Amino acid sequence: MKSLVIILLIPQILFGANKKELLASHTEKFGPSDYYIDLWCQGNVLDCIKAHGLTNKHALYVDSHGISSFSYFVIRPDNRVTKGKTPPWYRVKDIAKSLGTNTTNIHNVYFAACNTGNTFDLDEVRQCFPNATNIVHMPGKWEGHEDFFIQSMCGHPEDKPRGKFRPYWAELYLPGGKKPYCTMIANKSLLAQ
Length: 193
Prior knowledge:
Layout: H1 2-25, E1 27-30, E2 34-38, H2 44-51, E3 59-63, E4 65-69, E5 72-76, H3 79-82, H4 92-99, E6 108-111, H5 122-128, E7 134-137, H6 146-154, E8 169-172, E9 182-185
Parallel strand pairs: 2-3, 3-6, 6-7
Antiparallel strand pairs: 1-2, 4-5, 7-8, 8-9
Protein backbone atom coordinates (compact mmCIF):
# COMPACT_ATOMS: atom_id res chain seq x y z
CA MET A 1 0.00 0.00 0.00
CA LYS A 2 2.87 2.40 0.67
CA SER A 3 4.06 2.11 -2.92
CA LEU A 4 0.58 2.96 -4.21
CA VAL A 5 0.52 6.12 -2.12
CA ILE A 6 3.89 7.14 -3.54
CA ILE A 7 2.70 6.55 -7.11
CA LEU A 8 -0.40 8.67 -6.56
CA LEU A 9 1.69 11.53 -5.15
CA ILE A 10 4.18 11.60 -8.01
CA PRO A 11 2.04 13.75 -10.36
CA GLN A 12 1.57 16.34 -7.61
CA ILE A 13 5.29 16.40 -6.82
CA LEU A 14 6.33 16.56 -10.49
CA PHE A 15 3.87 19.16 -11.67
CA GLY A 16 2.62 21.17 -8.67
CA ALA A 17 2.14 24.82 -9.65
CA ASN A 18 3.28 24.17 -13.22
CA LYS A 19 0.23 21.97 -13.75
CA LYS A 20 -2.09 24.81 -12.74
CA GLU A 21 -0.16 27.39 -14.76
CA LEU A 22 -0.17 25.20 -17.87
CA LEU A 23 -3.94 24.80 -17.74
CA ALA A 24 -4.44 28.54 -17.14
CA SER A 25 -2.15 29.47 -20.04
CA HIS A 26 -4.18 27.34 -22.46
CA THR A 27 -7.62 28.51 -21.33
CA GLU A 28 -9.24 31.26 -23.33
CA LYS A 29 -12.40 33.07 -22.34
CA PHE A 30 -14.31 34.35 -25.34
CA GLY A 31 -17.54 36.23 -25.20
CA PRO A 32 -19.13 36.86 -21.84
CA SER A 33 -19.79 33.23 -20.92
CA ASP A 34 -17.65 30.76 -22.89
CA TYR A 35 -14.33 29.03 -22.24
CA TYR A 36 -12.07 27.09 -24.55
CA ILE A 37 -9.23 24.92 -23.28
CA ASP A 38 -6.87 24.05 -26.12
CA LEU A 39 -4.40 21.38 -25.06
CA TRP A 40 -3.58 20.61 -28.69
CA CYS A 41 -2.28 24.09 -29.62
CA GLN A 42 -4.01 24.12 -32.96
CA GLY A 43 -6.92 26.51 -32.46
CA ASN A 44 -9.00 24.90 -35.23
CA VAL A 45 -11.93 24.16 -32.95
CA LEU A 46 -12.15 27.69 -31.56
CA ASP A 47 -11.95 29.15 -35.08
CA CYS A 48 -14.90 26.96 -36.09
CA ILE A 49 -16.91 27.89 -33.00
CA LYS A 50 -16.47 31.59 -33.70
CA ALA A 51 -17.10 31.23 -37.45
CA HIS A 52 -20.45 29.54 -36.74
CA GLY A 53 -21.48 32.20 -34.21
CA LEU A 54 -21.52 29.75 -31.31
CA THR A 55 -20.57 32.34 -28.72
CA ASN A 56 -22.36 33.38 -25.54
CA LYS A 57 -23.61 29.80 -25.09
CA HIS A 58 -22.46 29.35 -21.46
CA ALA A 59 -20.17 26.65 -22.76
CA LEU A 60 -16.88 24.99 -21.92
CA TYR A 61 -15.00 23.33 -24.78
CA VAL A 62 -12.04 21.09 -23.90
CA ASP A 63 -9.83 19.97 -26.79
CA SER A 64 -7.29 17.43 -25.49
CA HIS A 65 -6.17 13.83 -25.28
CA GLY A 66 -8.27 11.59 -23.05
CA ILE A 67 -6.94 8.49 -21.29
CA SER A 68 -7.74 6.19 -18.39
CA SER A 69 -5.57 6.26 -15.30
CA PHE A 70 -6.33 4.19 -12.20
CA SER A 71 -9.89 3.79 -13.56
CA TYR A 72 -10.36 7.57 -13.84
CA PHE A 73 -10.92 9.65 -16.95
CA VAL A 74 -8.10 12.14 -17.30
CA ILE A 75 -7.13 14.61 -19.98
CA ARG A 76 -3.63 15.57 -20.91
CA PRO A 77 -2.00 18.01 -23.28
CA ASP A 78 -0.37 17.03 -26.52
CA ASN A 79 3.43 16.87 -26.40
CA ARG A 80 3.58 20.05 -28.50
CA VAL A 81 2.06 21.95 -25.58
CA THR A 82 4.64 20.73 -23.07
CA LYS A 83 7.52 21.00 -25.57
CA GLY A 84 8.68 17.41 -25.07
CA LYS A 85 8.36 17.36 -21.27
CA THR A 86 6.16 14.75 -19.63
CA PRO A 87 2.65 16.22 -19.80
CA PRO A 88 0.56 16.55 -16.63
CA TRP A 89 -2.80 14.87 -16.33
CA TYR A 90 -5.97 16.65 -15.34
CA ARG A 91 -9.20 15.39 -13.90
CA VAL A 92 -12.48 17.20 -14.55
CA LYS A 93 -12.24 18.66 -11.05
CA ASP A 94 -8.91 20.32 -11.98
CA ILE A 95 -10.62 22.09 -14.87
CA ALA A 96 -13.47 23.16 -12.61
CA LYS A 97 -11.05 24.45 -10.00
CA SER A 98 -9.24 26.52 -12.63
CA LEU A 99 -12.53 28.19 -13.62
CA GLY A 100 -13.52 28.91 -10.01
CA THR A 101 -17.03 30.22 -9.45
CA ASN A 102 -17.60 30.43 -13.22
CA THR A 103 -18.46 26.71 -13.18
CA THR A 104 -22.01 27.56 -12.10
CA ASN A 105 -22.49 29.58 -15.31
CA ILE A 106 -21.54 26.66 -17.57
CA HIS A 107 -24.54 24.91 -19.16
CA ASN A 108 -22.85 23.17 -22.10
CA VAL A 109 -19.73 21.03 -21.58
CA TYR A 110 -17.88 19.60 -24.58
CA PHE A 111 -14.96 17.16 -24.29
CA ALA A 112 -13.09 16.32 -27.51
CA ALA A 113 -11.01 13.65 -25.77
CA CYS A 114 -10.91 9.94 -26.57
CA ASN A 115 -12.80 7.61 -24.26
CA THR A 116 -11.16 4.31 -25.24
CA GLY A 117 -10.93 3.22 -21.60
CA ASN A 118 -14.67 3.86 -21.11
CA THR A 119 -13.97 5.92 -17.97
CA PHE A 120 -15.68 9.20 -18.86
CA ASP A 121 -17.70 9.97 -15.72
CA LEU A 122 -20.93 11.94 -16.14
CA ASP A 123 -21.40 12.12 -12.37
CA GLU A 124 -18.00 13.80 -11.96
CA VAL A 125 -18.85 16.34 -14.65
CA ARG A 126 -22.20 17.07 -13.00
CA GLN A 127 -20.55 17.49 -9.60
CA CYS A 128 -18.04 19.95 -11.02
CA PHE A 129 -20.49 21.75 -13.33
CA PRO A 130 -23.78 21.54 -11.42
CA ASN A 131 -25.81 23.57 -13.93
CA ALA A 132 -24.66 21.71 -17.04
CA THR A 133 -27.66 20.54 -19.03
CA ASN A 134 -25.75 19.34 -22.13
CA ILE A 135 -22.65 17.18 -21.69
CA VAL A 136 -21.01 16.11 -24.95
CA HIS A 137 -18.36 13.39 -25.06
CA MET A 138 -17.09 10.45 -27.06
CA PRO A 139 -18.90 7.19 -26.25
CA GLY A 140 -17.03 4.49 -24.36
CA LYS A 141 -14.27 2.59 -26.13
CA TRP A 142 -14.07 5.09 -29.01
CA GLU A 143 -11.36 7.47 -30.11
CA GLY A 144 -12.19 11.13 -30.48
CA HIS A 145 -11.20 13.08 -33.58
CA GLU A 146 -11.18 16.80 -34.26
CA ASP A 147 -13.37 16.52 -37.38
CA PHE A 148 -16.04 14.62 -35.45
CA PHE A 149 -15.78 17.05 -32.54
CA ILE A 150 -16.34 20.00 -34.87
CA GLN A 151 -19.28 18.13 -36.45
CA SER A 152 -20.79 17.72 -32.95
CA MET A 153 -20.91 21.52 -32.56
CA CYS A 154 -21.22 22.91 -36.06
CA GLY A 155 -23.02 20.15 -37.96
CA HIS A 156 -26.75 19.87 -38.51
CA PRO A 157 -28.78 16.73 -37.73
CA GLU A 158 -29.48 16.18 -41.44
CA ASP A 159 -25.77 16.37 -42.42
CA LYS A 160 -24.46 13.13 -43.83
CA PRO A 161 -21.08 12.31 -42.31
CA ARG A 162 -18.24 11.31 -44.61
CA GLY A 163 -16.08 8.25 -44.10
CA LYS A 164 -15.89 6.35 -40.84
CA PHE A 165 -17.89 8.68 -38.62
CA ARG A 166 -17.90 8.26 -34.87
CA PRO A 167 -20.44 10.64 -33.40
CA TYR A 168 -20.10 12.39 -30.09
CA TRP A 169 -22.92 11.76 -27.67
CA ALA A 170 -24.89 14.45 -25.92
CA GLU A 171 -26.27 13.59 -22.51
CA LEU A 172 -29.15 15.98 -21.79
CA TYR A 173 -30.22 16.88 -18.26
CA LEU A 174 -33.06 18.88 -16.85
CA PRO A 175 -31.85 21.64 -14.49
CA GLY A 176 -31.05 19.95 -11.18
CA GLY A 177 -31.49 16.48 -12.70
CA LYS A 178 -29.34 13.61 -11.47
CA LYS A 179 -29.58 11.40 -14.56
CA PRO A 180 -29.82 12.31 -18.25
CA TYR A 181 -33.34 12.33 -19.62
CA CYS A 182 -32.06 11.86 -23.18
CA THR A 183 -28.96 10.69 -25.02
CA MET A 184 -28.56 11.75 -28.64
CA ILE A 185 -25.93 12.38 -31.29
CA ALA A 186 -24.54 15.86 -30.66
CA ASN A 187 -25.11 18.53 -33.32
CA LYS A 188 -25.42 22.29 -33.67
CA SER A 189 -29.05 22.32 -32.51
CA LEU A 190 -27.86 21.86 -28.90
CA LEU A 191 -26.12 25.23 -29.02
CA ALA A 192 -28.70 26.99 -31.17
CA GLN A 193 -30.98 27.62 -28.21
